[in-house]
């Protein structure tokens, strides 16, 4: 039995309206105790007008939406009470619901119940939280594709292919005497594994691009003091976020800012100038700069166009083998420019070439924006794991490993595929995912 839960589904702020949501097996029975109309005989989704009362105490005049399970978000009988948006009112409604038998919902419990009742698979459930946290139109679009089931369709060919070969192997093992059954020989297994490995590689590649659109990336701006890092940050953000002076060591802490670049959320970090320093405060800022350098997806390594010295050479060593864009600032001070270098003038807001270089680094195409992709880090990790299992199967086939052991490995890969959708009954993973949701979702 699913006990009735209650939570506020709108922000806990003063507003025109608020929504209190309830869901559970005895939801209609409990709500009928404090609503002016009886809901116990409700057989279809309904809109009702009435009053919330605690005994003779009138709490509010409301519009109530009654959802008869399974035709509700959770799959259970559910109610949404639309009240006036005073915290005094919606908190009183929640307290009254608790008084008559409901309990407070936990984080993500409504979505968790929708998953438990088969209204959503795990990918769709994850997309709800992603949708709430989306900060760009493009990110929102990818999340909606996942919520509508388009991303799930990417998993179906993998699920069917592995399911088919497992079934064939099981039949071959259990009924070897039937000669008219297709044989699950080495060639067949190799064909299936190679086809799925290639498909998974594409899913991972597209998913990594989708993850950039969905979650954004971190870019650190590094360089020695006074090369114009803060000016570049300000120019990219088109605001005076960081203090700019001609005094070395002005930036002593990491200055953060966000920008939307062609639908991708860019988290920018202007760091303290990297150099040897005896100043204790500046030294702490430099340590933070080095830490941010390790955490970032892309590094903008900034030099002066007309002044490359030993300090710059040391910074080059720090960014060696990292995903780096080399930027030469103050291009207006240089007459003869090297065609292989990226020149900007942050002071004059001449940074379009830098934006183009960042977009080129991202490597996104129109298809990445328009098509569904498996863009969650958890899901990409599972796909990588499935690929590794299938690669191991190929090696075992070469070694002429017994078919029952190969079957065990393929079954492990198949269960990993099911875990992407939450069909493996791994509720520990599901519980961890839903715990990240806000209350009321």
List keywords for this structure.
alpha/beta, Rossmann fold, six-stranded mixed sheet, 15 helices
Topology:
Blueprint: E1 5-8, E2 15-23, H1 27-32, E3 46-54, E4 57-67, E5 78-85, H2 87-99, E6 103-104, H3 109-116, H4 122-133, H5 137-147, H6 152-174, H7 186-215, E7 217-222, H8 229-237, E8 255-261, E9 264-270, H9 280-295, E10 298-304, H10 310-318, E11 324-329, E12 342-343, H11 352-362, H12 366-370, H13 377-398, H14 403-421, H15 427-434
Structure overview:
With 441 residues, the chain is an alpha/beta fold. The protein folds into three domains: 5-105, Gyrase A, domain 2 (2-Layer Sandwich), CATH 3.30.1360; 122-215 and 376-425, Up-down Bundle (Four Helix Bundle (Hemerythrin (Met), subunit A)); 223-365, Rossmann fold (3-Layer(aba) Sandwich), CATH 3.40.50. It is 46% helix and 18% strand. It has helices at residues 27-32, 87-99, 109-116, 122-133, 137-147, 152-174, 186-215, 229-237, 280-295, 310-318, 352-362, 366-370, 377-398, 403-421, 427-434; strands at residues 5-8, 15-23, 46-54, 57-67, 78-85, 103-104, 217-222, 255-261, 264-270, 298-304, 324-329, 342-343. The strands form two sheets. The chain has a six-stranded mixed beta sheet. It has a six-stranded mixed beta sheet with strand order 8-9-7-10-11-12, sandwiched between helices. α4 (122-133) packs antiparallel against α5 (137-147), α6 packs antiparallel against α7 and α13 runs antiparallel to α14. It is flat and about 85 Å long. It starts with a strand and ends in a 7-residue tail after the last helix.
């Amino acid at each position: 039995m699913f006990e009735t839960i209650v939570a506020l589904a709108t922000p806990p702020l003063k507003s025109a309206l608020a929504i209190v949501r309830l869901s559970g097996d005895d939801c209609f029975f409990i709500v009928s105790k404090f609503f002016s109309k009886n809901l116990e005989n409700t057989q279809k989704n309904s809109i009702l007008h009435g009053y919330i009362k605690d005994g003779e105490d009138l709490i509010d005049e409301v519009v109530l939406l009654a959802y008869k399970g399974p035709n509700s978000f959770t799959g259970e009988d559910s109610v949404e009470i639309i009240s006036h948006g005073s915290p005094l009112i919606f908190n009183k409604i929640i307290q009254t619901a608790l008084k008559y038998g409901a309990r407070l919902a936990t984080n993500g419990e409504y979505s968790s119940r929708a998953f438990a009742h088969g209204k959503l698979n795990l990918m769709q459930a994850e997309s709800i939280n992603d949708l709430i946290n989306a900060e760009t139109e493009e990110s929102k679009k990818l999340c909606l594709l996942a919520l509508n089931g388009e991303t799930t369709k990417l998993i179906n060919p993998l699920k069917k292919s592995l399911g088919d070969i497992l079934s064939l192997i099981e039949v071959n093992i259990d009924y070897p005497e039937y000669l008219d059954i297709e044989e699950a020989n080495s060639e067949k297994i190799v064909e299936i594994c190679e086809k799925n490995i290639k498909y998974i590689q594409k899913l991972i590649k597209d998913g990594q691009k989708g993850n950039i659109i969905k979650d954004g990336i971190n870019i650190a701006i590094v360089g020695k003091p006074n090369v114009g890092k803060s000016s570049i940050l300000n120019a990219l953000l088109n605001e005076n976020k960081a203090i700019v002076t001609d005094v070395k060591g002005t930036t002593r802490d990491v200055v953060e800012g966000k920008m939307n670049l062609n639908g991708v959320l860019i988290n920018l970090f202007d760091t303290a100038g990297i150099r040897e320093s005896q100043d204790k405060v500046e030294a702490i800022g430099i340590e933070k700069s080095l830490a941010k350098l390790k955490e970032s997806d892309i590094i903008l390594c900034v030099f002066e166009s007309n002044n490359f010295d030993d300090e710059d050479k040391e910074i080059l060593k720090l960014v060696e083998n990292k995903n780096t864009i080399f930027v030469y600032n103050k291009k207006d001070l240089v007459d003869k420019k090297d065609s292989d270098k990226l020149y900007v003038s942050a002071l004059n807001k001449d940074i379009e070439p830098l934006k183009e270089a960042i977009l080129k680094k991202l490597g996104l195409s129109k298809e990445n924006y328009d098509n569904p992709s498996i863009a969650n880090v958890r899901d990409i990790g599972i796909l990588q794991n499935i690929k590794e299992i299938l690669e191991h199967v190929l090696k075992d086939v070469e070694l002429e490993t017994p078919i029952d052991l190969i079957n065990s490995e393929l079954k492990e890969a198949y269960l990993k595929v099911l875990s992407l959708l939450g069909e493996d009954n791994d509720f520990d993973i599901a519980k961890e995912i839903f715990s990240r949701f806000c209350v009321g979702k």
